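Example record

One chain of 288 residues, shown exactly as stored in the release files.
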Amino acid sequence: MTLEYSSVTEKRLSLLWQLPKSIQGTLSRVGQQHYEELYEPEAEDAASLQDALDEILEVFQSNNQTLSHIRYVWMALILASVVEPTVQYYQPLNLIPQKTISKIELWLLENLEKMLDSKRKFFNALRKEEFNAIVDGIQIDYTNKKVPNFQIIFEALDVYMSAIKTLDYNQSLESLLDILENCLEGYAIFPGSNGRRELFDWWLLEVVPASWYLMPPSSIYSVDKLGNEKNKGFCQMNKLNEISSAMWSIILTASTSGQRSNLRTLPNKVEDSLNKIPFDVRLDKWAS
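Predicted structure tokens for this chain:
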């Protein structure tokens, strides 16, 4: 099995280098360790993958619960996008991936402005009726184990149910950990043991920094076995760019409201916006 990235990775470390030094140190330390769960040959000196994931996600915790929540949801959305080809390959008529991604996108764009407005009280926890309305039409049959490739399909679809659960702040961390388990150790992205470390490194070096800044990763991880992976990766990247652009537009509007700003329009490329926005109106403003 050959594993490859579906887009150029020249800017792979660009966001990583802009992270706070303390976070860079944590990522570096975690990246230098070996993990038995990833089937690495250096298993004798292996660290706990669960501990590593806990440590990374704890870095996202700050005094601002709202920002931590947004970042968790964005990471869940990135991973849900990567899992989409698995479902399309084994169940091409299954619409759960598209429905879930659309619901999360709608939730982010409808609630982001409210979440960033310090004058308005936003409740991160979803009421039961709100959650039921969101998951309507995204029900998964966990009992029919006679479905071909049941484990692959079960774990891939479970990613989408967990992604929906991240919309509730009280469930967001646990649900994101469930997604990571299905992706990094399970079969949600690909079966077998080959390529586990490469997948983990992609998450660590690209998805984590991208999630911190609510931007797309520089590449989408894909598996050539699923066929037409480059076109799928291109579509996924375009979708993430589109959603990120809309989110940054909301952020810019909220952060410059009532202030004079030299930014007349949002840059066409999302990654350019990070460099053009003054530091005092970047996302770090909400992280303090």
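Notes: Confidence is low (pLDDT under 50) at residues 1-10, 258-271, 277-288.
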